[in-house]
Specification:
Number of strands: 5
Order of helices and strands: HEEEHEHEHHHHHH
Low-confidence stretches: none
Mean pLDDT: 86
Strand content: 5-15%
Strand order of the largest sheet: 1-4-5
Radius of gyration: 18 Å
Structural class: mainly alpha
Helix content: 40-55%
Number of helices: 9
């Protein structure tokens, strides 16, 4: 492995990638107070995009779920052993699957399998429960669409149906409702 570049703020990321053409980008999820997941999502969408490994101090489920939704290869906590980071970089560079016990695989699994509808008083379909789980994790409509491989328009429609069926005004109220019903 060879370090081909370093950046000190989000604005430098794209020029550095264009200049160095790395196989893997290792990035924090936040840098100097800025949320980098939006920039990382753009990197993951580039044609011939490098694999992305997030190496972060933030173990927030929302960050990890968002990273999974945008296509990050792996999410390694800075408190993890260095060997774990090196293994993730090696797997990303070799286009191997991410660790099945890693944070990204765990988050993707949770997002695909909502808790079973235990009561009949929950008026949502299985897909709406999946979308609600994503909403409760803080994912944007675009991230929900990407995670569930549905269009943004379909994700928006599901969110609107959820709000209507739950008789709530916004995504935050829907997330609170889901937590109270123990659905996420």
């Amino acid at each position: 492995m060879e370090l081909v570049g370093r950046v000190s703020d989000a604005a430098e990321i794209f020029s550095a990638i264009s200049r160095t053409r790395p196989g893997v980008v290792v990035s924090e999820s936040r840098l100097r107070g800025s949320d980098l997941l939006g920039s990382l999502a753009e990197i993951c969408q580039l044609s011939h995009s490098p694999a992305v490994v997030v190496f972060s101090a933030f173990d927030d489920l929302s960050h990890i779920a968002r990273a999974a939704a945008i296509g990050v290869h792996e999410y390694i906590l800075k408190s993890s052993p260095l060997a774990e980071l090196m293994a993730a970089i090696d797997a990303a560079a070799n286009h191997s699957e991410s660790d099945e016990n890693g944070l990204i695989a765990t988050a993707r699994g949770r997002m695909r399998r909502p808790k079973q509808q235990a009561r009949t008083d929950v008026p949502l379909t299985r897909r709406e429960l999946q979308v609600l789980q994503h909403v409760a994790m803080g994912l944007s409509t675009r991230e929900i669409g990407s995670s569930l491989t549905i269009s943004i328009e379909t994700a928006k429609e599901h969110v609107q149906n959820i709000l209507r069926k739950l008789d709530v005004n916004d995504r935050t109220q829907a997330a609170v409702w889901a937590v109270r019903k123990n659905l996420v």
